[in-house]
From TrEMBL:
It catalyses: D-beta-lysine + L-lysyl-[protein] + ATP = N(6)-((3R)-3,6-diaminohexanoyl)-L-lysyl-[protein] + AMP + diphosphate + H(+). PANTHER family: ELONGATION FACTOR P--(R)-BETA-LYSINE LIGASE (PTHR42918:SF6), LYSYL-TRNA SYNTHETASE (PTHR42918). Gene3D superfamilies: Bira Bifunctional Protein, Domain 2. Homodimer. This is Lysine--tRNA ligase GenX. The keyword Ribosomal protein does not apply. The gene is genX. Its EC number is 6.1.1.6. GO terms for cellular component: cytosol. One of its GO terms (molecular function) is tRNA binding. GO terms for biological process: lysyl-tRNA aminoacylation. It comes from endosymbiont of Tevnia jerichonana.
Length: 246
């Protein structure tokens, strides 16, 4: 889709099937459905407003919108300033929160943040609201732009409903050289972990080099949203053919 944006498509969307190996559970199915769209001229904050409008039109009852900065979420729910903690300090917080296996895990700073977020913070997000968690650490930028500051932050967001992530959005990175560097770093990390390294997406990099318009994009999980709309407890309840019957 970014190649189409670079070719001048303008606002664009698609609904598609996505596959992730090894994810199966109450909220996960290896095959799921995404709604993805891009808005030229938007940043991540403007896109949060549009996502909220769409989701509130679909829910049985509209919800108030909460926007919570990533660092503030850790301060509110764990009482810590993430910039003041290294990996060892975050491990101690995980042990304090009695997260299973925390005493023996070997994770880096971002790994501990992810663990704390998923186990100690996410369950509290979006309880009666549409909660947008935004401005992630720069080290978790993925495909997002990084806004300079002290500290710098990634211009991305995730939407939570009843403790469950529904959408993931970005103020899209348009710097081809920076995107190539991030791909290379990701492959280095995958190599060190013994994982398969995907080939470099030269077509995407060429499109960025040609010129991607300033835009924001989001991927919204339709199956998870259907769970919220219908009150389903298991993702299999909103799928025609869940994994065990595929």
């Amino acid at each position: 889709m970014k190649r189409l944006l670079a070719a001048g498509s303008g606002p664009i969307y698609e609904i598609c099937k996505v596959f992730r190996d090894g994810e199966l559970g109450r909220r996960h199915n290896p095959e799921f459905t995404l709604l993805e769209w891009y808005r030229p001229g938007f940043d991540h904050r403007q896109l949060m407003g549009e996502v909220a409008e769409l989701v509130n039109r679909l829910l049985p009852e509209p919800r108030p919108v909460e926007r919570l900065a990533y660092a503030e979420a850790f301060h509110r729910h764990l009482g810590i300033d993430i910039q003041a903690f290294d990996a060892t300090g975050l491990q101690q917080v995980a042990q304090r929160e009695q997260i299973s296996g925390a005493e023996s895990l070997q994770l880096d700073w971002d790994g501990w943040l992810d663990l704390l977020l998923s186990h100690a913070i996410e369950p509290h997000l979006g309880r009666g609201t549409l909660c947008f968690l935004y401005d992630y650490p720069a080290s978790q930028a993925a495909l997002a732009r990084v806004r300079p500051g002290n500290p710098p932050v990634a211009e991305r967001f995730e939407l939570y409903l009843e403790g469950m992530e529904i959408a993931n959005g970005f103020h899209e990175l348009s710097d081809a050289d920076e995107q190539r560097r991030r791909f290379e770093v990701d492959n280095q990390n995958r190599r060190a972990a013994g994982l398969v390294e995907p080939p470099m997406d030269e077509y995407l990099l060429a499109a960025l080099q040609a010129g991607l318009p300033d835009c924001a994009g989001v991927a919204l999980g339709i199956d998870r949203l259907l769970m919220q709309v219908s009150g389903a407890e298991q993702i299999r309840q909103v799928l025609a053919f869940p994994f065990e019957r595929a």
